Each structure stands twice: as C-alpha cells, then as structure tokens.
Amino acid sequence: MIRVMLVDDQAVVRAGFRFLLEQADDIEVVAEAANGPTAVELARRHRPDVVCMDVRMPGGDGLAATREIVAGEAAPAVLVVTTFDLDEYVFGALEAGASGFILKDCEPEELIDAVRRLADGHGLIDQAVTHRVITEFARRKAPPAPASDAGGRLTAREAEIVRHLARGLSNAEIAKELVVETSTVKSHLGRAMAKVGTRDRLQTVVWAYQNGLAQR
C-alpha cells in the first residue's frame, strides 16, 4: 500500500482528495494536516510515502514544511497540489525539494497516477506547467558553476542522459535518440542520481539547471 498524508487548510479539499485516492486499491490515506507545522509532526509520526502538500495555508505554509519533511531520514516524496500554475510558491517548493506538482483542478486519475509515480521514485510536473515552470525556475537562478566542474562526478554518458532528461525527454525518448536500450538509460540515470544525491527525475533536472548541465 502507498501511504499518503494530505495537507490543506480546507477540510472539504482534504475530504475530496481522501475520497478520490481511496478509490484506488493500492493507496491509503494515513494522516491529514491543516498547516505546515502539523504536517511536519505527522510526517514524522506516520512516515507516509507521499505527502500531498498545499502551499498557501494560515498557521504555517507548505514551503517550510516541505523543506523540513524532505530533510528527514527516509523522507517521503512531496507532491505540491496548487491552484496556480505559475505561483511564486511553486518555485519555492521546487527549491525546497518537492518531487512533483499538479494542479487542483486535475482529473481524479491524474492525481492517483501522480501519487503512484512519486511513490515509485519518479518526479512529476503537471503537463500544463512543465516547460514554463522549469524554464522560469532556470531563468531566476544565479549563474551556474561551469558544467565541467559540476558534472565532473558523472561519466560522459551519464551527463549526456541528464542533459536529455532536462530537455523533458522520457527514458524511451532518450534511448531512441542515443540508439540504446531503455534499460541502459535507466541504469545510467540511476547511477547519475546516486552520484549527485538527487531522489527523483524532477530534482535531477533542477540539479542540471543549477550546475550548468542544462541549456536555459
């Protein structure tokens, strides 16, 4: 079972998400919180696999909570559920270590799929905001370190795959472009993530932009 915690200051939103998620046989909602500090406490107590996190909440926003939650041992993945596709809070959450973003008006199946993807170690940004969020995030960052320094830990092939990942390509698309097997891409990407210390694809893209391996 995928253990999920819901964080939103509106009880009706939490109730709606709980109802939708628990329609899936492999998802269980183990805790709910109405603000950031409570979310941090409950995450430590219940150890969910995925946290569905609102960002604008009275009594403690989701940014600080995300930062604290992902900093812990065996940290869950944080899925930011937002109303705004280019909200300043989205960029803050990306820097804080969120693993995915989805809009509150998504279809039920999209929410369930997002939770499953994050539980499986895959980052996610809602398709409606993918390019805009990553591009704007990269534009706002300070000038990166030279790629040769940042990418020195990676082999040439690993760095090449990370660059393609930052372009938004899937494993299958990268494999086709490099004329290799998809399993080979997955293996190289896994080693690259282990070397640079990222948990998922989304945070690996962030790392690539921050360290000059991705084109702005």
TrEMBL record:
Name of the protein described by the UniProt record: DNA-binding response regulator
Domain Response regulatory: start-end pairs: 3-119
SUPFAM superfamilies (UniProt xref): C-terminal effector domain of the bipartite response regulators, CheY-like
GO biological process terms held by the UniProt record: phosphorelay signal transduction system; regulation of DNA-templated transcription
GO MF terms, alphabetically ordered: DNA binding
InterPro entries linked: CheY-like_superfamily, NreC/VraR/RcsB-like_REC, Sig_transdc_resp-reg_C-effctor, Sig_transdc_resp-reg_receiver, Tscrpt_reg_LuxR_C, WalR-like
Native species: Promicromonospora soli
Keywords linked to the UniProt accession: DNA-binding, Phosphoprotein, Transcription, Transcription regulation
